[in-house]
Amino acid sequence: MIKTTISIGIITIIYILMIFSEKAMADNSKTSTAINDGCTINYKVIGEGKPLVLLFGFGMSLEEWFQLGYADTLSEKYKVIAIDPRGHGKSCSPKSSEAYTLEKFSLDIISVLDQLSVNKAYIFGYSLGAKIALGVAKYYPKRLMGLILGGFEINSNVNLSNDIVISTLRLGGAEWMRLWQSLMDVPAPMGSRLENVHTKSLIALRTQEAKWDSFKPLISKIQIPTLLIVAENCFTYEDMIKASKLLSNAELHIIQDEDHFTLINHMDKAINKIINFLGLQRNQANSAVAKSRTAKNQVQK
To answer: Which domains does the chain have, with CATH numbers?
Structure first.
């Protein structure tokens, strides 16, 4: 009886500690909103250091960055700014396709950076998030220190007459979640978020995405350091190879035995490369500053 009581007491203590530990981790991040032309943009900040914006793919939420472990790992060295672009998560969800131009998406990101008084940032965008990051590079190039782009198409290959994304969204959130479950292992909280997406807003976004211009002319002009990440079996593989050849200052990292969706769950295969890339840029920037100061001192002497 005494042993049973002690065991129950120990289990209770462990459970309480787990709750407080999770709460403490949650309290390390701060959720807020910015406004872009009347559209509320939800974002969450965690960590200190050089600012790193995180943008996930179509229909996903900023919460995925936290649930899948990206945000906690990256925030150990960087100020992570995870953003829900319009139509996603807790941000505004217009139902008009005209609300989803690449320029408006880009300004969503800038609105958050302005509110945080961040002049320049790195952006890590995956899939649709990579396209939005390229939009920022097009419309606000001076606000970027570097790019990390994963799994994006150079041209928006959206056939509106036969698009599985739109046809599934028309069937409702439950079918949208089941489509994701057929493509990857979906953790329960993520599944719930997918089931509760704003289907009409995402259809409007998809309709507008079909009209987006090719990224090829833009990619060939980008000169800031860029890391490209693609899964070996990703449907964007060939486009990512082409992008690596168009970019003047890029590094391509191919991840074996994964596809566009399974890679999302396997953070460990990409995160070290991302951290090394960011660390290299930081070291080079510090070195440039040091050389500049040395040269200035020599002139003064």
So the answer is: 30-300 (3.40.50.1820)
